[in-house]
């Protein structure tokens, strides 16, 4: 049995082995790669929603703590700085990482320590120095209690959701070891992971089903990628450190698709060898640690996100009259339906809805998803041609940037149909999804927009990601502003 017989294949990208840097252990830092996937069966609980809820819980806890202070000392700016400081400290400590299922007792020391640091810094730098120490201690205590209680509720909801809908996973390694790990996971569904395939190369079971577990044995990178897409896999369990070397090509391809990679120790520890590893955890009793591609944290830089939020927010305010005018003209000339919504593929292969001003009406949803371009269609009105020529129809994507679906600078997002096509034709294409997609990018400022070479775009996009810096983003934005009026949209 091969991967094709597990579930029917949904529409989605088929990811070949992409160019991804060598995997290196980075402890608990797993960023957002543990996000929920969209498969043909029941989807994994949305890790992103739990992450957002944790942010809201921590911000609300800071507000409750501030309410303990006497009314004259509840300075809004001080409270905002306290909440922002604690959120940043928590983020740096990976306390918003949802790749691993944790408990509130495990993270209680880290949460309370960062709240204490936040209060100490705010008191030292603000008028709160005049508040009695007992009152400050009480406010910090309420802050800690609210944060711990809120996080306990969120973690409890997530564990219950994972018990009801465990996330699908591929188990990679020697056949005997993958069988043992998979059997343990199937016996303990509370761990939140459900194996859907074994990636092993045993000549006796090539392409056959595992008789003991009923799971397909996947022996090629192509079968592994198909199983990943068909089952909505977002977790890969790597059994044994040697597997990282033996299956490096397969693991790079799976990492490029946005999977969280766990290295598990299936064998008991040897005497005389230290069993302690920084950032280690366990899954169903197997010691393990999360693996990441080098540089992935840098690509999710706080500075880049801050630039996106500040500039997109300011630009939305500035261009609001322009957008409103264009929308009114479109409504008068072409009737209702001013905003065009289309599914695109973003960071880590996650889909999102991209917004544009409508400049044409596709004959059907299938045509909108699979037809490359209608920029040369003769039935578009003169005003719609104007919107496309000046790229004014793209301005609504500033809202996508503000809410976090996109970035101002990054690889241009594409529709799922074309992501699948281009991923098969160009090996480096899936690696473009290591970073948030953008309104403009290095490829666009070099003239690669519209009907231009996908191979060239892919090369420029990956070069941009590999050499990313905040200054490079600023330079690309300045060059884009200089080229704002151009013959065709991107």
From TrEMBL:
<keyword id="KW-0812">Transmembrane</keyword>
<dbReference type="Pfam" id="PF02397">
    <property type="entry name" value="Bac_transf"/>
</dbReference>
<dbReference type="InterPro" id="IPR003362">
    <property type="entry name" value="Bact_transf"/>
</dbReference>
<feature type="transmembrane region" description="Helical">
    <location>
        <begin position="307"/>
        <end position="333"/>
    </location>
</feature>
<feature type="transmembrane region" description="Helical">
    <location>
        <begin position="52"/>
        <end position="69"/>
    </location>
</feature>
<keyword id="KW-0472">Membrane</keyword>
<feature type="domain" description="Bacterial sugar transferase">
    <location>
        <begin position="304"/>
        <end position="485"/>
    </location>
</feature>
<keyword id="KW-0808">Transferase</keyword>
<dbReference type="InterPro" id="IPR017475">
    <property type="entry name" value="EPS_sugar_tfrase"/>
</dbReference>
<keyword id="KW-1133">Transmembrane helix</keyword>
<comment type="similarity">
    <text>Belongs to the bacterial sugar transferase family.</text>
</comment>
<dbReference type="GO" id="GO:0016780">
    <property type="term" value="F:phosphotransferase activity, for other substituted phosphate groups"/>
</dbReference>
<protein>
    <submittedName>
        <fullName>Exopolysaccharide biosynthesis polyprenyl glycosylphosphotransferase</fullName>
    </submittedName>
</protein>
<feature type="transmembrane region" description="Helical">
    <location>
        <begin position="131"/>
        <end position="154"/>
    </location>
</feature>
<dbReference type="GO" id="GO:0016020">
    <property type="term" value="C:membrane"/>
</dbReference>
């Amino acid at each position: 049995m091969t991967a094709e017989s597990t579930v029917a294949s949904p529409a989605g990208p088929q990811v070949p082995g992409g160019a991804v840097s060598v995997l290196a252990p980075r402890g608990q830092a797993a960023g957002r790669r543990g996000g929920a996937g969209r498969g043909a069966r029941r989807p994994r609980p949305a890790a992103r929603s739990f992450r957002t809820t944790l942010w809201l819980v921590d911000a609300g806890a800071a507000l409750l703590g501030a309410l303990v202070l006497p009314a004259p000392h509840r300075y809004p700016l001080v409270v905002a700085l306290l909440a922002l400081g604690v959120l940043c400290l928590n983020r740096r400590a990976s306390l918003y990482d949802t790749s691993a299922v944790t408990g509130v007792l495990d993270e209680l020391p880290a949460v309370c320590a960062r709240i204490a640091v936040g209060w100490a810094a705010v008191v030292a730098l603000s008028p709160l120095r005049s508040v009695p120490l007992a009152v400050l201690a009480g406010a910090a205590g309420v802050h800690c209690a609210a944060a711990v209680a809120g996080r306990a509720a969120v973690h409890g909801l997530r564990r219950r959701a994972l018990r009801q809908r465990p996330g699908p996973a591929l188990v990679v390694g020697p056949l005997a070891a993958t069988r043992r790990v998979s059997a343990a996971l199937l016996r303990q569904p509370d761990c939140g992971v459900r194996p859907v395939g074994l990636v092993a190369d045993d000549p006796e079971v090539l392409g056959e089903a595992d008789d003991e577990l009923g799971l397909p044995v996947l022996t090629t990178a192509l079968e592994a990628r198909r199983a990943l897409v068909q089952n909505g896999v977002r977790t890969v369990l790597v059994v044994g450190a040697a597997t990282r070397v033996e299956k490096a090509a397969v693991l790079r391809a799976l990492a490029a698709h946005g999977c969280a990679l766990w290295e598990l120790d299936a064998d008991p520890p040897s005497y005389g060898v230290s069993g302690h590893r920084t950032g280690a955890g366990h899954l169903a009793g197997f010691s393990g640690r999360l693996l990441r591609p080098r540089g992935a944290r840098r690509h999710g830089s706080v500075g880049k996100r801050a630039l996106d939020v500040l500039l997109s927010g300011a630009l939305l305010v500035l261009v609001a009259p322009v957008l409103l005018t264009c929308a009114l003209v479109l409504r008068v000339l072409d009737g209702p339906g001013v905003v065009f919504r289309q599914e695109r593929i973003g960071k880590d292969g996650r889909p999102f809805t991209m917004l544009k001003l409508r400049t044409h009406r596709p004959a059907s949803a299938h045509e909108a998803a699979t037809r490359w371009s209608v920029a040369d269609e003769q039935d578009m009105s003169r005003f719609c041609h104007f919107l496309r020529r000046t790229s004014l129809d793209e301005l609504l994507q500033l809202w996508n940037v503000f809410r976090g679906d996109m970035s101002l600078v990054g690889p241009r997002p594409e529709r799922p149909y074309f992501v699948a096509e281009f991923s098969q034709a160009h090996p480096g294409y899936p690696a473009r999804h290591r970073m948030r997609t953008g309104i403009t990018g290095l490829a666009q400022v070099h003239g690669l927009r519209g009907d231009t070479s996908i191979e060239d775009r892919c090369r420029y996009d990956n070069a941009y990601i590999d050499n990313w810096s905040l200054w490079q983003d600023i330079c690309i934005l300045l060059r884009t502003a200089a080229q704002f009026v151009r013959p065709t949209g991107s």
